[in-house]
Amino acid sequence: MEARGSERSGGGGDATWASRDPRQKDVYEGFLDEGKGQWTHLYVSTGRIVEHSVGQYSACLTQDWAKEAINDPSWDLSLGSGEPGFSQSYSSGVPVTTYHRFSDHDVEPLVYYREFHGIRPRELELSEEFRLLFNLWEDRKTRTYFYFDEAGNAVKAAAITDNSLTVLTSLVRRYQAVRQMYPALYIDSTLWSVTLPHEREQWERKTDQENLSYYRDAAPGGGLFSRLFGKKLVSPPPIEESGIWPYEGRGHTRASSLM
User: What stretches of the chain adopt beta strand conformation (E)?
Assistant: First the structure.
């Protein structure tokens, strides 16, 4: 998917909205930079409702679904979904029950957001397939994952806190090279502030790899709010860049081969 852009109703590149809503501008610019630095946020939850709340999430999309998903800024996977389960359909009046590893065969979680009805604290988990593919070791006291290079050095690969899960961008890229899937990164940032301009404003930014929308208006019940919402997709590199047998040449770790 090539990145050719088009923006409507002001667009994300319009400096006017940014000067009027600098806190959302910072979120917007930070989100556009996701996947370009050393670390990628696969989950973030910060702030408070009726002040400024920012949520980020992620998923892996098949190439066919990525072509459809980019047309809609909505998230393809909600928090807590994506778990295994059954579906049931009917053939000639007879129920057919099928087990699925994921709730949607075109969308796979990278992060599992697990809740236990308030009986136990919620948990964040990095995809098991991701962890096993790179043979990551978990320091359970610090909730940090490491891989070990050929010299036996421990290299930090991922970190989990109560409000975030970050992973080395290089590992995300290599994982998608193996799977030939599109990581989707999602954002939902809502700001309530009396300092926002009273004029209503709305724009969309849509490219072949981004679909973001911004909306600012009066909040229900009084006050003002703005919302930045949408997604960005990252094209997979060639499978030869996975660094996993038989493609070790360009990789940084060695995963077990199946012989």
Answer: 5-8, 39-48, 52-61, 85-91, 94-100, 107-109, 111-114, 123-126, 137-139, 144-148, 154-160, 164-168, 182-192, 201-207, 210-218, 224-233
- Residue 6 inside a domain? The answer is no
Domain contains 258: no
The two structure tokens encoding residue 162: 């109560």
How does pLDDT run across 181-193, given as a tens digit for each residue? 999 999 999 999 9
Q: For the chain, what is the radius of gyration of the CA atoms?
A: 20
The parent domain of residue 168 ranges over 18-81+97-250
Q: Which residues of 154-168 are buried (b: 16+ CB within 10 A; e: fewer)?
A: eeebbbbeeeebbbb
166 domain residue, yes or no: yes
Residue length of the chain: 259
Indicate the number of domains in the chain: 1
Residue 4 lies in a domain: no
At 101-119, the pLDDT tens digits run: 766 678 999 999 988 888 9
User: Long-range contacts for 140-149 (Cβ within 8 Å, ≥24 apart)?
Assistant: 147/171, 147/253, 148/253, 149/252, 149/253
